[in-house]
Amino acid sequence: MAEVVVSVLLVLGAALALVGSWGVVVLPRFLSRIHGPSVVTTGGLGTLLLASLIWFWFDGGRLTGRELLVSFVLAVTAPITGHALSRAWLARHPKDPVDLGPGRDDS
Amino acid sequence: MSRVLPHPVTSVMLLITWVTITDPLSPGHWLLGLVVAWALPFATRGLFDQRIRVRSVPRILAYVALVAFDVFASNLRVTWLILSRGGRQSPVLVKVPLTLRDPFAITALASTISYTPGTVSVDVSEDRTHLLVHVFHTDDPASVVAGIKSRYERRLLEIFPC
């Protein structure tokens, strides 16, 4: 039973990671493309970590805090990439970007 | 006390982290973890002159649960937006006026926004009164700003001393 649940979660996590990466390919604007990878680091990896937790719980009989720790480290570090990338974009587009209006944040 | 142990909370978290990634059942790793938990904050004490203060730990846990739920919901939303619309979203940059003043609280808000798919915080104004946020897709930017303020900032105001 645990095997079925873990398999479903693994496929689901991989699918979310694929959609997030696909976003980087199809999204037309720089700032929009930043949103793709955030699906990979939250939904994709979150689902895979849940699968790992369930697997080692039922298979090895051990419930360790490692998955929780990985999620914590991800939650602290993932936004830094977003900040760094978007601030770099901002530095190259110094005029007030709020005046650009919807859909016109092109780079 | 504070000279020898400059950041007690950080030390406790480091110790928990150390035994979690090694072996929680081994006394040797608890000992090694204690050394790391003391030495790291002590060696880097010059970098963090301010101590982080929070008012309520249960409220932090409630906030984490809320954000976890929101991250789950926005994952489904953004995934659907990418699959159904390809590159045809209506993205927008919005200015979020800040009531928070504490730098750690603003960092927590900016990180929450970035970690939730669909919104990324781009910049904080020099005077720390506004946050610049990029929204992946919305027809109503004002409601996104109102949502960030009422859902996250209001709760952070209750967590951090202001």
Quick structural overview:
The complex is a heterodimer of chains A (107) and B (162). By secondary structure, chain A is mainly alpha-helical. Chain A is built from four helices and no strands.
Write up this protein.
- The complex is a heterodimer of chains A (107) and B (162).
- By secondary structure, chain A is mostly helical.
- Chain A contains 4 helices and no strands.
- Chain A is elongated, with a radius of gyration of 18 Å.
- Chain B is mainly alpha-helical.
- Chain B has 2 domains: 8-47, no CATH class; 57-159, no CATH class.
- Chain B is built from 5 helices and 3 strands; from the N terminus they run αααβαββα.
- In chain B, helix 1 (8-21) runs antiparallel to helix 2, helix 3 (57-85) packs antiparallel against helix 5 (141-159) and helix 4 (103-115) crosses helix 5 (141-159).
- At the A-B interface, helix 1, helix 3 and helix 4 of A face helix 1, helix 3, strand 1, helix 4 and strand 2 of B.
What is the helix fraction of residues of chain B, given as a range? 55-70%
Oligomer: heterodimer
What is the N-to-C succession of helices and strands of chain B?
HHHEHEEH
Q: Give the number of DSSP strands of chain B.
A: 3
> How much helicity do the residues of chain A have?
over 70%
Mean pLDDT of chain A: 83
| Largest interface chains and counts | A-B, 41 and 37 residues
Distance between the termini of chain B: 26 Å
Radius of gyration of chain B equals 20 Å
User: How many distinct folded domains of chain A?
Assistant: 1
Strand content of chain B: 5-15%
Coarse morphology of chain B: globular
Number of strands of chain A: 0
Count of alpha and pi helical runs of chain B: 5
Which secondary structure elements does this structure contain, and how are they paired or packed?
The complex is a heterodimer of chains A (107) and B (162).
Chain A: H1 2-26, H2 30-33, H3 35-58, H4 66-92
Helix pairs in contact in A: 1-3, 3-4
Chain B: H1 8-21, H2 27-43, H3 57-85, E1 92-97, H4 103-115, E2 119-124, E3 130-135, H5 141-159
Helix pairs in contact in B: 1-2, 3-5, 4-5
